[in-house]
Amino acid sequence: MKNLIVMVFVSLSANVLMATAQMPTPWTNPYFFYHYNAPLPPQKTNEMDVGNKHLSDYGDQLISDSLGAHSLLISTCVRELRTTKADLAQTTQRLNDTYTEMESIKDELNNVMDTVDDLKKIVNERTSPIVDIGKMPTSCDDLQQMGNRRNGFFSVLAQNKIQTVHCNFAKPKTDQNYQNLIGYVDVKSSPVYFFAQKSTTFTLIDGVIPFEIFRLNVGNAINSTGVFVAPTPGTYSFSFSAISNVNTLARVDMQMKNATSDWFKIGQAFGQPITETLTMQFTLQLAKSDQIRLILKEGGIHDRTDVGFGPWTHFVGLLLEEDIF
Ligand SMILES: *[C@@H]1O[C@H](CO)[C@@H](O)[C@H](O)[C@H]1NC(C)=O
Ligand SMILES: *[C@@H]1O[C@H](CO)[C@@H](O)[C@H](O)[C@H]1NC(C)=O
Ligand SMILES: *[C@@H]1O[C@H](CO)[C@@H](O)[C@H](O)[C@H]1NC(C)=O
User: Keyword Transit peptide: yes or no (predicted)?
Assistant: First the structure.
């Protein structure tokens, strides 16, 4: 009976010790170590055989010691187990916390992905692949086909001019407010205008009237020789005025030359003798390199800039509109 109890304890201890092999505490406890390794009391088989229950004092003492050692071992193990259980609970809680946190991060990520999807849709609606329609745009429809999506003012080609239109791409193409014409754009590749004057009297018949004073000569289309050369095709405006010479009349022709016709008369100005004003104005469609000049046909034009008189001769020209296409 005693041996059975001892065996049970020994095997129990061994199991527990194996289970807690990573925790050397019971083994390093000197009290436990001594008693656990103490030899077991000798077996008394004869006493067991006759069913005699009396045990010697020496045997009782050994069993009592052994029991004490094992009881200590068990309580140590139980303590360890409790600690382990508490640790495990803590770990479980942390795992749970981590899990909860992960779930909320997942939710947030889903929200962010939804937002990104929405933004993608908006961006795709507003921008679209750049399309080459093979020509300059002439309407809001062209602009839309090219990929424009935002309402606003646009420049489009209208015949050989530029127009400003307002496009409302949110409206159907059939709506009258889909495209609204604001007006044509007066655009020039570069400006051309001049203001020339004379400082002396001119009397050379059939001579080109030269100019000595240039208040302005933007674009350099004319110089002191008095020959204007159109630098760019477009509509030009010219204005000339002078006074006849003191004792003679004045007759002046404005002439033009183009690619196919040599100098020909556009118009004539005439003034009676005694400083009478002669004047003429022209608006002309010119091609590039077409030329304009003034020729004295009869008498003379009077001018001076000394003693507080003059100048009386004025020649003005400007590019009204350029044919940029
Ligand atoms: C986490 O703990 C809460 C209570 O703190 C509980 O309701 C929930 O079921 C636990 N979740 C998991 C996955 O264990
Ligand atoms: C003035 O202009 C004419 C016509 O373009 C040109 O033939 C001439 O050389 C120019 N003269 C000067 C001094 O620039
Ligand atoms: C030159 O001017 C003449 C007379 O106005 C016109 O008949 C002719 O077509 C012009 N040439 C060019 C190339 O414009």
Answer: no
193, 219 Cβ separation under 8 angstroms: yes
Q: Which of 214, 223, 263 to mutate to test the pocket of ligand 2 (most atoms within 8 A of CB)?
A: 223
Question: Rounded to whole angstroms, how far apart are CA atoms 119 and 272?
Answer: 81
Q: What's the CA-to-centroid distance between 290 and ligand 3, angstroms?
A: 10
Residue 235: CATH number of its domain: 2.60.120.40
Residues 82 and 184: their CA atoms lie apart, in Å, by 92
pTM (2 decimals)? 0.62
Nearest bound ligand to the CA of residue 256:
3
Read off the pLDDT of each residue in 233-253 and give the average, rounded to a whole number.
95
Q: Residue 256 CA: which ligand 3 atom is closest?
A: 2
- Per-residue model confidence as pLDDT tens digits over 75-91: 999 999 999 999 999 99
Provide the number of structural domains found in the chain: 3
List the domain range (segments joined by +) for residue 19.
2-103
Is the pLDDT at 6 greater than 50, yes or no? Answer: no
Residue closest by Cα to atom 13 of ligand 1: 96
Q: Which of 76, 103, 130 is the last residue of a domain?
A: 103
